[in-house]
Amino acid sequence: MTLAASYAEFATREARGTSPAYERLSLAVSRDDELLALLATLPPHKRQPNLLFGVVRLLGGPVHDPVAFREFTVANWPAVEAELHTRATQTNEPGRCAVLLPVLAALPQPLALLEVGASAGLCLYPDRYAYRYGEHALGADGPVLDCAVTGTAPPTRLPEVVWRAGLDLHPLDVTDPADVDWLDALIWPEHEHRRARLRAAAAVAAAEPPLLVRGDLVDDLPALAARAPAGATLVVFHTSVLYLVPPRRREAFTELVRGLPGHWISNEAAEVLAHDALPEPPGETLHNVLALDGRPLAWTRSHGQAMTWFG
């Protein structure tokens, strides 16, 4: 896929219906030869729309008007380029816990959670948040995570978590305001509810910071998994992470994680982690496939706002 096509696809599959500003920006970039030429000088994994738009927001640039965005980006390209080289898309959306919860609550308790691509670790606290599945509410403390669920009954209990750890190439410190500001910049501009939710979830995590280890998802996973306490069900999970991993490395990871004790929860796009005989997704917007130990269970939206159960 060409760079122009990837920005056009981001506009139609991910941003449409979710972020009008990013839909406009993505379409504008897909038609802008000068911006595409600048982006083409970067390594392939540094060209994504989310990363570019987040860096411009972090630098104080405009993202609601494509013309102003273009002028700022071209005029400040050295600064934008430097940030693109050093930053990574580390969206840490606690709302994703809402689609993980039905699986986590059904596993043998207590749980030892290990997230691959953990960012600042905000998804390691599913037991500390409150949830709203339509009329069904669960949990009393922390930020409220809303999720529209069809095809299954909402969960009726929170998981019991006795150990939580994360693995990331560039872990973020939830107690560092600069790291939280970067997470804020990655939130799409219209999503004030997500911005407030991020700050509330960061306060929950900062009160008891998680164990975050800098490392590779293949080379360093076994050693971290071995630190999980005996008597707890190890759950290795990840969401919207493997698209950043080269295919061969992805295969090595899936082979490795299948051999670990406990369970494996994946929540990735269908083209990133293949499954046999999936039903049609509910709509044209991008959906992830939620799976337990390689068995697909549901279509989910990328920020945890909806899930359609078919497992």
How is this structure best described in words?
Strand 2 and strand 3 form a beta hairpin. The protein is α/β, with parallel strands linked by helices and about 300 residues long. It folds into 2 domains: about 80 residues, no CATH class; about 220 residues, Rossmann fold (3-Layer(aba) Sandwich), CATH 3.40.50. The longest helix is centred in the middle third of the chain and has 16 residues. It is built from 11 helices and 12 strands. About 35% of the residues lie in helices and about 20% in strands. The chain starts with a helix and ends with a strand. The protein is globular and about 55 Å long. Helix 1 packs antiparallel against helix 2 and helix 4 crosses helix 8. It has a 9-stranded mixed β-sheet. Strands 3-2-4 form a 3-stranded mixed β-sheet, with no helix packed on it.
- Tell me the distance between the termini: 32 Å
Number of domains: 2
Q: Architecture of the largest domain, CATH level 2?
A: 3-Layer(aba) Sandwich
CATH topology of the largest domain, what is it called?
Rossmann fold
Q: Order of SSEs, N→C?
A: HHHHHHHEEEEEEHHEHEHEEEE
Number of strands: 12
Q: In CATH's first tier, which class of the largest domain applies?
A: Alpha Beta
Give the CA-based shape.
globular
| Structure annotation, total helices | 11
Helix content: 25-40%
Radius of gyration: 19 Å
User: What low-confidence regions span 5 or more consecutive residues with pLDDT below 50?
Assistant: none
The biggest beta sheet reads: 9 strands, mixed
Beta-strand residue percentage? 15-25%
Strand order of the largest sheet: 5-12-11-10-9-8-1-6-7
Overall pLDDT metric: 95
Helices and strands: which structural class? Answer: alpha/beta
